[in-house]
Amino acid sequence: MPGRLFSFLLTAAVVLRLTEGEKESGGSGQKHQCWHGDYDEHRCCVEKDPDCWDAVFTEKRCCPLWSNTSTLGKTRGDPTCWVGGFKFEDCCLEDPKEECWDNEFRPERCCVDRDVPLTGFFAGEDPLEAFARRIAEISTFPLGCEEERLGEVWRMIKESATSINVSRIYGSPGEKPSGENADVLNKLVLKWVNDERAWQWGRSACPMAALAAIDMTVVGIDRRFGAEKARATYQLRLDLAPTLPSTQVEAAEKIGWVDLGDANEFIPRVLGMHGEHGCFGSKLKIFIYNVPELAHMVRPVLACAQKMPQCAVSVQIHRWLATSTCVTEDAQEADLFYVPAYEACYNETACVEDGRCFPKEFDPVKHLPYFERYRGADHIFVFGCNFLPFEDPLMTAIRQSIFITVESFQAVSLSGPNLFAWFSHWKDVLIPGNIPAYKIKAMLAHNTPMYKRRLLVAFHGHSSRNKKIGHMYKSSPLAEVRDRIINYFFNASRCSAGPPVSDYFLRMGTSRFCLIPAGLTAWTIHLYESFFFGCVPVIMSDEVILPFQEEIDWSSLSLQVPASIDMEELHKKLDAYRMGRLKAMSRRLTEARCWFDYSLGWGQEASARKGCSPFLGMMKVLEKRAELARHSPYSRLKRFWEPIPHTD
Ligand SMILES: *[C@@H]1O[C@H](CO)[C@@H](O)[C@H](O)[C@H]1NC(C)=O
Ligand SMILES: *[C@@H]1O[C@H](CO)[C@@H](O)[C@H](O)[C@H]1NC(C)=O
Ligand SMILES: *[C@@H]1O[C@H](CO)[C@@H](O)[C@H](O)[C@H]1NC(C)=O
Ligand SMILES: *[C@@H]1O[C@H](CO)[C@@H](O)[C@H](O)[C@H]1NC(C)=O
User: How many angstroms does the Cα of residue 491 sit away from the middle of ligand 4?
Assistant: First the structure.
């Protein structure tokens, strides 16, 4: 999976800009911004071309005259009914669609106007609207802080924190303050870190703002000043939060303050502030290299842990191992050697344009002192997204090493011609992609019980139709299935298929099946997401190999069908699944999801060989690989040799 592409998925930066615009123009939206190039009102609103829409440019926003859907903050009927593509207009007016109603959803309940609750979960509301409403709402609430000195700053913090909070409820990371606002915040927080009296004043003048300010700046402080400063910064938060009485926090939340702490729960873990864990009782001893030639590839750790999170396993694994009882500083007793490098953290770690982050001059034989002993067979490299092409000199040098990777098969390497790269059963370790804990929480909040799910099938993702990156999908031999899915399911009843959408979480969480087609490579993060959305994954990627097959009974909770399957046939097949069978699959998805949650396994729970975490799954396989690495008949010979001369 080419992680770099994901920067333009659902970013709240755009959301923020739009919403500010909407505030100025009185909530009417900015229709004129919708149209450029070949995209015009006729093509998009009248002909309803699906290519028009993405996370930001939604039909609802750009075509208000062409539909009778709600205006800002107002949804007719019971808003909790309008998920998964069902609308008041389709169900409650004359000639309602037949599939609107079942045991759970009835006209008596859904067609009676109800108020949208002012705070809390924005069921059924479009993210952009929820966002605009929340921001407008909190600007009318009192600040509740000592305002004499920093009133404006507290207000800015409150609005920024709210926008991030709402974005995250919909699974998007949200945009931190930028420009002047960012400068003000950074200065303020650094002053708190360096000046005890300033901190004492700040924490009592506006404690919720103090917490939010730290949450919004700590990643940047790590980038600019290093992990030590970031730890000192986050420590202030850890000290302050538990001293606030819950009544005070509740009162603050009533006037619109939000707590961003949840989404930063990874920070103390990756900064090593939680102390050591027991490595799930593993006896392996792992030596972690500190390679000067790769020093730039292990920082900034906080930014790399968050950036393109589905590719960030190299950060998770490095920091998890580094804080475990499995590490040894004595190379002589080490079973395995770990080479830390956040190889998928583009643009933070000085990668060159072709996507190769390892510096050209890095040579394992020269720079890793223990590499040659077993021809690299006891050395570990992590590939969080995309292998390098096979012809790359580094891949040749480390071809006997253990790869911990999410890629089971990769057809086109972004950094080279059409080369094949794949995972090897006998030496590599296949792991799931990383999903940040805040996203998992948001997915679970959208995960509805199977019997309430109104959609049969959902898929929203990039394809060759995409204006900007479609050419990559066109040239991938694997991605053609995505076009066929969208062509067929776009118009099918009770199905939702197309490009990324802003209410993606709502749709996935209300669909019985989620289609998981191959993309640029064989795996996609959508597969692991489906466990948290609770939709049954239908895998359509012939080359994919699934991780943790010893832990998870994949065939009891998912389907794999040929990527070439006829879509109508697939539709019929899925439609024939009975509720009882779906419920059983859904229960198994729930039981198995801990294997895909990288926030599990950092504390007490990792003290013994039990429980469930991707790290446990990884260690179990790694132990077998370690066994082989040293005793393989293929690593006996040195790289060069000649017979020892006779001495008689
Ligand atoms: C929207 O509602 C008006 C009346 O309220 C109706 O005349 C019009 O046809 C509706 N438009 C659509 C697209 O349903
Ligand atoms: C949003 O804010 C509420 C109230 O402070 C908090 O409970 C919740 O965890 C926040 N959610 C996210 C995703 O930040
Ligand atoms: C990375 O940096 C290059 C050059 O500065 C820029 O052109 C590119 O868009 C950046 N990529 C991402 C994903 O930010
Ligand atoms: C959906 O149906 C409409 C009208 O029946 C048709 O014009 C359009 O091409 C279809 N869209 C897709 C993606 O098949």
Answer: 6
The answer for 6, left when phi > 0, alpha when psi is -120 to 50, beta otherwise, is alpha
Residue 332 has what pLDDT? 95
Average pLDDT per 10 consecutive residues for the chain, totaling 648 residues: 30 33 32 64 72 73 54 59 73 77 77 55 60 80 89 92 87 85 95 97 96 96 96 97 96 93 91 94 97 93 92 96 97 97 84 77 96 93 88 90 93 61 90 95 92 90 87 85 94 87 86 94 94 98 95 97 97 94 96 97 93 97 91 80 86
Q: How far is the CA of 140 from the centre of ligand 2 (A)?
A: 20
Q: pTM value?
A: 0.81
pLDDT recorded at residue 17: 32
Look at strands 495-498 and 511-517 and give their pairing: unpaired
Q: How many CB atoms are closer than 10 A to CB 426?
A: 8
Ligand 1 atom showing the smallest separation from residue 68 Cα: 1
What pLDDT score does 417 carry? 54
CA distance 112 to 426: 61
Buried b or exposed e, range 130-140, using 16+ CB within 10 angstroms: bbbbbbeebee
Distance CA 337, CA 285 (A): 9
Q: For strand 536-540 and strand 559-560, is the pairing parallel, antiparallel, or unpaired?
A: parallel
Report the alpha-carbon distance of residue 508 to residue 168 in Å, rounded: 16
The finding on whether 215 has its CB within 6 A of some atom of ligand 2 is no
**Alpha carbon distance 137, 630 (integer Å):** 64
Instruction: Please state, in angstroms and rounded to a whole number, the distance separating the CA atoms of residues 293 and 193.
Output: 32
CB 44 within 8 A of CB 196: no
Tokens describing residue 625: 């690989």
Taking CA atoms only, the protein residue closest to ligand 3 atom 8 is 347
- What b-and-e string marks burial along 12-24, b requiring 16 or more CB atoms within 10 Å of the CB? bbbbbebbeebee
| Gap from CA of 347 to ligand 3 centroid (Å) | 6
Any ligand 1 atom below 6 A from CB of 68: yes
Q: Which amino acid is at 575?
A: D
As a whole number of angstroms, the distance between CA 23 and CA 29 comes to: 8
For ligand 2, the distance from its centroid to the CA atom of residue 158, given in whole angstroms, is 13
**Exposed/middle/buried for residue 617 (C-beta within 10 Å: 0-12, 13-18, 19+):** buried
CA count, 13 A, side-chain hemisphere, 532: 25
Q: How far is it between the farthest Cα atoms of the chain?
A: 106
2, 249, 311, 394, 599 from 6: Cα distances, Å: 8, 35, 10, 26, 22
Please report the pLDDT score of residue 126 as a whole number.
Answer: 67
Q: By C-alpha distance, which of 608, 622, 635, 551 is closest to 284?
A: 622
| Measured distance CA(574)–CA(537) in Å, rounded | 11
Query: What is the three-state SS of 196-227?
Result: HHHHHHHHHHCHHHHHHHHHHHHHHHHHHHCH
Rounded CA-CA distance 22/593 in Å is 39
Token pair, residue 27, equals 């909530």
Closest CA to 171 of 538, 506, 510: 506
